[in-house]
Amino acid sequence: MRPQALIFLGAPGAGKGTQAREVSKHFAIPQISTGDILRDAVKKQTPLGLAARVKMEAGELVPDEVVCGIVEERIAEPDCQMGFILDGFPRTIPQAEFVGRMLQTKGRGDPLVLNIRVDHDVLMKRLTGRRTCSVCGEIYNVYFNPPKKEGVCDKEGGKLLQRADDNEETIRQRLVAYEKQTSPLIEYYRKKNLLCDFDGNRDPAPIAQEIVNALVNA
């Protein structure tokens, strides 16, 4: 695979984080989470990190110019020279336009965008059915990967808990927000012939293999 910027798109529960981790391991390229690098910039008290902290502490969204600047700083680091994965970025058309300009300026070419498509009812079951062991953190799903004993972890015997934001109403709101804000990116990249669609309704393993094969042959 040539040096490449990879962008994963997909609704909450689509499994894009899981697939991004698999691609990161297979090709030995970093998975860059905007949340992680924002927190790191704040911790290091870089100028952009300090600007982000002011907004975060006020409960406001971090402006595009700050987020974009932090992403640009991160991908300039040595571990990104042979490629990298953007996780959670871009989220909007202006951010996508910034990524395109930045990559072209640096001679990195266009990004390759991997869109994980999952049916709405499957997303709802994945998110509302998610349970986490209070002891070891093992994750189950009451629909797709249930424990042997209801409400109890197979490994540690810990109580299985449901996250407060994994209720149906909150999840519906998250999916609506995704459709409104982020899904326009799908058409943006499709028109540029930079988008590859993958069926995310299946188990993670065959999806990961399909993605790796597509990247090897890109």
List keywords for this structure.
218 residues; alpha/beta; Rossmann fold; three-stranded antiparallel sheet; 8 strands; 47% helix
The arrangement of helices and strands along the chain is EHEHHHEHEHEEEHHEH
Strand content: 5-15%
What best-fitting shape do the alpha-carbon axes yield?
globular
Q: Regarding CATH, which class of one domain?
A: Alpha Beta
Number of alpha- plus pi-helical segments: 9
CATH superfamily of one domain: P-loop containing nucleotide triphosphate hydrolases
CATH architecture classification name of one domain? 3-Layer(aba) Sandwich
Structural class, from helix and strand content?
Answer: alpha/beta
Mean pLDDT score: 90
Largest β sheet strand count, sense and barrel closure = 5 strands, parallel
Low-confidence stretches: none
Question: What is the gyration radius calculated from CA atoms?
Answer: 18 Å
Distance between the termini: 7 Å
Can you describe this structure?
The chain is α/β, with parallel strands linked by helices and 218 residues long. The protein has a domain at 5-118 and 178-205: P-loop containing nucleotide triphosphate hydrolases (Rossmann fold, 3-Layer(aba) Sandwich). Helix content is 47%, strand content 15%. The strands form two sheets. Strands 2-3-1-4-8 form a five-stranded parallel β-sheet, with helices on both faces. Strands 6-5-7 form a three-stranded antiparallel β-sheet. Helix 2 (34-44) crosses helix 4 and helix 3 (47-57) runs antiparallel to helix 4. The longest helix is centred in the C-terminal third of the chain and has 14 residues, at 168-181. It is globular and about 55 Å long.
